[in-house]
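Continuing the batch. This is chain 6 of the set; chains 1 through 5 are on the previous pages. Same settings as before, nothing changed between runs. Recording input and output for traceability.
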Amino acid sequence: MTSLDSVLDKDGVRLTVDDAVATVTLTNPAKRNAQSPALWRALTEAGRALPGSVRVVVLRGEGKSFSAGLDRQAFTPEGFDGEPSFLDMARGPQAELDATIAEYQEAFTWWRRNDIVSIAAVQGHAIGAGFQLALACDLRIVAEDVQFAMRETSLGLVPDLTGTHPLVNLVGYARALEICATGRFVHAEEAERTGLANLVVPAGELDAAARDLAGALLAAPRDAVVETKALLSGAVSRGYEEQRVAERAAQGRRLRDLAGITD
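Output for chain 6:
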């Protein structure tokens, strides 16, 4: 097995690769893995740095919390060193603000690529941006102490880091609205019951459970998993008949590939 332990390690993000499994770790437990623009750029860079051999990506956070959300320093007049404060950004042209938010969102979009399956291993607090980062992944394994919450509305803001779409798909519109508008905590039992979590385990077993799931995902041929993921992710926007057509096309590609037929 080939182990690369330093593919990327910067701004609170570490990427390691072991054959077909990559691990992205949030590495600032002293601040409960609070997020910043620098961290988001590092997450985007991690996605771009994945070797083509990677099939599964595990996302985890060091310490007691997965991620407590956006670092509140972003809302101070001074902001972060070398970064414009969010208050200054708000005073600028709308087009520039929109472009900046779009750049931040890139840290949350690559987890759903068809060529990988992403697993969030979530313990403790996953608040706001932390909740949305967990939602960015395909699958979620959570510890019994997990506490999800979408607190943006309490700050006069909205969730804008791509979390609203998967949240509605997972729990439905009414529950998603209630979770976001109230900012309440969602604990492990509710997360599993409503589909936010695929599995709940004791905190001490979280990393092992993520490794076990990664191994199970690697058991099937890569191309079959890629095609299946594309089918399932596209089913949300397709009608029944459109999905039947998509299934036939995907199966045709798989059968031709297995038969060694090239177009």
